[in-house]
Every structure is written in structure tokens, then in C-alpha cells.
Amino acid sequence: MQIYDRSDNEITTLEQWARLYDTPQQSHQWVEHRSAYSVADFVLNRNGASQLESRVSNALGERVSLEKAMPEYEVRFDGYGRGRVHDLGIFGETASGKSIFVGLEAKVDETFGAMLKDVYLQAKARQITGVSTNAPERIEKLLAAHFSAPDPAMFNVRYQLLYATAGTIAEKADVSVLYVAVFKTLLYDETIGASNYRDYVHFVNKVGAQPIKLSDKGADAHEMQLANRRLVCLHEYFDLRA
Predict the structure, then answer these.
(1) Interatomic CA distance for residues 135 and 38, integer angstroms
(2) Which residues, other chains included, contact 116 with Cβ-Cβ below 8 Å and sequence gap of 6+?
(3) Radius of gyration of the chain, Cα coordinates, nearest whole angstrom
(4) Which residues share a beta bridge with 211?
(5) 42-79: per-residue pLDDT in tens?
(6) Which end of the chain is more exposed for a tag (fewer CB within 10 A), N or C?
(7) How confident is the model over 194-222, as pLDDT tens digits?
(8) In b/e form, how buried is each residue of 113-145, taking b as 16+ CB within 10 angstroms?
(9) Of the candidates 25, 220, 233, 198, the residue with the CA atom closest to the CA atom of residue 112
């Protein structure tokens, strides 16, 4: 798998990858043992691409070739502001000739963002007081896409997971995969990590995702329907402490 930046320059070293985060707004993201650095280290130095390819192939039940990837890859999924920025957008093809897009969400022990109910109420409060924001409309459309019937409990999910799924299928490949890769580094906190995993499981259960049986127990795999498209969701831990 080859890695490229937005200008189509190939990335082969950590130093080249780090240049994506050399602005004042993004420099705080490039920290050793944290998510952005860890996914770069994993892919470039730890045979990560082969591990991702093997797991996706296992989940889909056919061989997959992951050919090209771009860090910080943005996918617009609605008309409201910025799109979903994947930590790594990966493109490839299945053995049967279908195009595949993998939206990789890299984590160490960072959360999946705020609870949806908090984001929504804060946005509505701003709107009520005259502040211009499309956030409530964006959230309402995401909820309508994910839930077939109204349920107050649907607000008790992490917002990031809601738009991560939408931003994966929006690439409109034949096969869509959201891959949550959790890297256990020297900064990984087991307690926080366990809480994040519970949030993930709660989300896939709440949206009615169905389990996919894998050949081993090294990852969780589910599939769901979103906007009449099939989305495969993977969650896997990778230990980078050695």
C-alpha cells in the first residue's frame, strides 16, 4: 500500500508524514504514542498495511488488495460545513473486482467525542440565542439516517461515531468499511480504553448492526445498513508497546 499526501506526494517516512501536522492548528496532534503518530508508525514501520488488509479480507470473506491511502482524508457527507476527516482514507479492490474504501479511525485512548445529546443541546442553545449554526440540522439528518424510529435513547451515543459512519459510506465505493484501530502505546490507559470500547459497542448495538463472524477473536466485526448501503464496521486493538 502506498501513502500519499493531498498534493499526491508519496509518504515513506515518519518525517514526511509529520509535515501534515506542521501548522499551528494541527501541530498538537503529532505526539509520539498518540493516535496520529501511532497510525503512521504502524503503517510505515510495523507491517500495518498487511494486517489491515488481512482483517478486512477476513470480514468480507474475499481477498482484498489495499492499494493507496491518504492521511487526514476528508469526505463530504452533507451540505453543512466540513466533512468527515478520516485519520487514514484507504482505497483498494476486492478479488471480485469491486472498489473498496476503508475509513480508518485511529485511537490510543482518545474518546469518540462528546455525547450526541450534549452537542445537540449546545447547538440548539446557540441557535435560539441568534447564533448561526447548521449543527442541529446536520445532527437531525444523521439521526434520521441511522434510526428508523424515534427513540430518545438515540441521543446517548458518541457524536463522532455517528458522522464517522456517514463519512465512510459517502465515499460511495462498492464496499465501505469503517475501521477503528486502537493502538496500545506507552500512553494507553486501560480504564479509559475500556470505556471507549463500551461506547463503541453501545453504538453498533443501538443502530442495529449485526455481528460478522471472523476466523479468530482478534477483532469485532459488524455490518449495518445506512442510506441503503452496506457498511462493515471493524474494531481492533494493536499493541505497539514493544
Answers:
(1) 31
(2) 139, 154, 155, 156, 157, 158, 159, 162
(3) 18
(4) 222
(5) 999 999 999 999 999 999 999 999 999 999 999 999 99
(6) C
(7) 999 999 999 999 999 999 999 988 999 99
(8) bebbbebbeebeeeeeeeeeeebbebbebbbeb
(9) 198
